[in-house]
DNA sequence: AATAATGATTATGG
DNA sequence: CCATAATCATTATT
């Protein structure tokens, strides 16, 4: 990329300057040496004209030098090499060279950079750690993009989560690949450049004193420069990863509403466990599974346990916060599950005769599919009768019968079939409906709106008080039906 | 376009 | 670690 171009340019310009420098040095050295009669077998053109005693001669001399300088670039490389060789072979050269080395050593110019290297640059370390944590710099895992693509393709109906995840991973591997190729390129360029410089220095060390330390220092400088560039790369990679992360993993950006069926199921559970809407881990798993398979074949998003947890968390808090807003919904689901309960209870009663106490679930299990359909209309009629049928408010003399009949049915099932805990939820639901409507019936002012059993005054669901004892909720409303059992 | 609904996250406390 | 409450950011609805 741009960087390598830059490097190439640097290299070129550096070599150019060094070559030029070498040639200039040679020529000038030649001239000056010639001027001071230290000249050996050099192929320099002898300064013509008289020895500059007067201005004219000096001018001539200077002009000559200038001419040489100006024509340096016209000299062929071979010519220059030849001159260089000549200079190197000069008999005085070793002596002069050692003198120069000594002088340089004394001036201490060569050793002046023995300070750095130790601080590992905390920022760079931070970047490295981040890249490592993000899986960009670490060991190649999963075979890179191919694996990600395969996962995306093969997932099929597996999970929408995995699709997004693999998408994310594909992008991540892309970033990782870019990062690695760039890094490698930098490394290579750095090495190339280093060897180039070292060669140059070695070459020059024949003409001017260059200590190994100096070379080392040079290499250190180069490496620092390159590592700073690498840090830039790492930084931008980190940035890219962070952007990708926020784009893909922050699920809030890709929120998808649950399907109708899923919310149905969740609501059903919620309202039928209103006294203690805290599904256990298993219950959550089951709910998640059920929600996921309702739309199974489609691309319907699968719902995870944590999503169920989220849902219940949100539901609880929102329900509690504004119970009035959820009344309608509560009634709806309560009635619905009540109908289910009635059907199930009937089935249970039927079954209880033939079946031993085995699997009390079986009676209820079927409600999923069989009742779902046929309860649709009965539910609707029930609802319209119950709540919307009469005048706007819920004073309903006839619906009381409805509840009572249902309640008695339920009671039957409870006693006859011994369905235990499972029935409990249905009872819960029924109680909800009953107490609800009763509360309205009593017209005890708006604030007495049916506080759900278990939702105490402080606003917390107190411990599942599973009122297995009887159906009467708390107070007055319960009395309406408590004695009408026959 | 304004607003409500809603799934997810964050902060806090037990 | 889980529940709650507040909040965020997206999606649905008006």
Automatic annotation (TrEMBL):
<keyword id="KW-0539">Nucleus</keyword>
<dbReference type="GO" id="GO:0003700">
    <property type="term" value="F:DNA-binding transcription factor activity"/>
</dbReference>
<keyword id="KW-0238">DNA-binding</keyword>
<feature type="region of interest" description="Disordered">
    <location>
        <begin position="455"/>
        <end position="486"/>
    </location>
</feature>
<dbReference type="GO" id="GO:0005634">
    <property type="term" value="C:nucleus"/>
</dbReference>
<dbReference type="Pfam" id="PF05920">
    <property type="entry name" value="Homeobox_KN"/>
</dbReference>
<comment type="similarity">
    <text>Belongs to the TALE/PBX homeobox family.</text>
</comment>
<protein>
    <submittedName>
        <fullName>Pre-B-cell leukemia transcription factor 3b isoform X1</fullName>
    </submittedName>
</protein>
<feature type="domain" description="PBC">
    <location>
        <begin position="57"/>
        <end position="250"/>
    </location>
</feature>
<dbReference type="GO" id="GO:0003677">
    <property type="term" value="F:DNA binding"/>
</dbReference>
<dbReference type="InterPro" id="IPR050224">
    <property type="entry name" value="TALE_homeobox"/>
</dbReference>
<dbReference type="InterPro" id="IPR009057">
    <property type="entry name" value="Homeodomain-like_sf"/>
</dbReference>
<keyword id="KW-0371">Homeobox</keyword>
<feature type="DNA-binding region" description="Homeobox">
    <location>
        <begin position="251"/>
        <end position="323"/>
    </location>
</feature>
<dbReference type="Pfam" id="PF03792">
    <property type="entry name" value="PBC"/>
</dbReference>
<dbReference type="InterPro" id="IPR005542">
    <property type="entry name" value="PBX_PBC_dom"/>
</dbReference>
<dbReference type="InterPro" id="IPR001356">
    <property type="entry name" value="HD"/>
</dbReference>
<feature type="domain" description="Homeobox">
    <location>
        <begin position="249"/>
        <end position="322"/>
    </location>
</feature>
<feature type="compositionally biased region" description="Polar residues">
    <location>
        <begin position="463"/>
        <end position="472"/>
    </location>
</feature>
<dbReference type="InterPro" id="IPR008422">
    <property type="entry name" value="KN_HD"/>
</dbReference>
């Amino acid at each position: 990329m741009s960087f390598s171009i830059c490097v190439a340019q640097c290299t070129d310009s550096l070599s150019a300057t060094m070559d030029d420098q070498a040639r200039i040095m040679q020529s000038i050295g030649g001239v000056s040496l010639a001027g001071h009669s230290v000249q050996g077998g050099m192929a320099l053109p002898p300064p013509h004209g008289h020895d500059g005693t007067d201005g004219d001669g000096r001018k001539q001399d200077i002009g000559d030098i200038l001419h040489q300088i100006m024509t340096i670039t016209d000299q062929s490389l071979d010519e220059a090499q030849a001159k260089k060789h000549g200079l190197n072979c000069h008999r005085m050269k070793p002596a002069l060279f050692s003198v120069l080395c000594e002088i340089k050593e004394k001036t201490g110019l060569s050793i002046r950079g023995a300070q750095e290297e130790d601080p590992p640059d905390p920022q760079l370390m931070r970047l490295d750690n981040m890249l490592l944590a993000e899986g960009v710099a670490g060991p190649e895992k999963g075979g890179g993009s191919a694996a990600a693509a395969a996962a995306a393709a093969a997932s099929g109906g597996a999970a929408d989560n995995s699709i997004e995840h693999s998408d994310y991973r594909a992008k991540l591997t892309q970033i990782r690949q870019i990062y690695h190729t760039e890094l490698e390129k930098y490394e290579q360029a750095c090495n190339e450049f280093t060897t180039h410089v070292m060669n140059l220095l070695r070459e020059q060390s024949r003409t001017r004193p260059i200590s190994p330390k100096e070379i080392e220092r040079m290499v250190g400088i180069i490496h620092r420069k390159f590592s700073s560039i690498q840090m830039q790369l790492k930084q931008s990679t980190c940035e890219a990863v962070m952007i990708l992360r926020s784009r893909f993993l922050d699920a809030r950006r890709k929120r998808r509403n649950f399907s109708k069926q899923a919310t149905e199921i969740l609501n059903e559970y919620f309202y039928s466990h209103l006294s203690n809407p805290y599904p256990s881990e298993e219950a959550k798993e089951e709910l998640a599974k059920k929600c996921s398979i309702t739309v199974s074949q489609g691309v319907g998003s699968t719902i995870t346990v944590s999503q169920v947890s989220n849902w219940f968390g949100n539901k609880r808090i929102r329900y509690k916060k504004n119970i009035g807003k959820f009344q309608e919904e509560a009634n709806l689901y309560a009635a619905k599950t009540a109908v289910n309960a009635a059907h199930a209870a009937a089935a249970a009663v039927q079954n209880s005769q033939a079946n031993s106490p085995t699997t009390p679930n079986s009676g209820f299990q079927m409600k999923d599919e069989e009742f779902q359909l046929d309860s649709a209309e009965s539910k609707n009629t029930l609802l319209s009768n119950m709540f919307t049928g009469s005048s706007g408010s819920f004073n309903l003399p006839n619906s009381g019968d409805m509840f009572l009949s249902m309640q008695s049915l339920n009671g039957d099932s409870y006693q006859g079939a011994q369905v235990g805990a499972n029935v409990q939820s249905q009872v819960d639901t029924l109680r909800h409906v009953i107490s609800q409507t009763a509360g309205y019936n009593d017209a005890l002012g708006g604030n007495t709106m049916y506080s759900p059993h278990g939702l105490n005054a402080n606003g917390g669901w107190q411990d599942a008080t599973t009122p297995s004892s009887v159906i009467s909720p708390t107070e007055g409303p319960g009395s309406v039906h408590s004695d009408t059992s026959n």
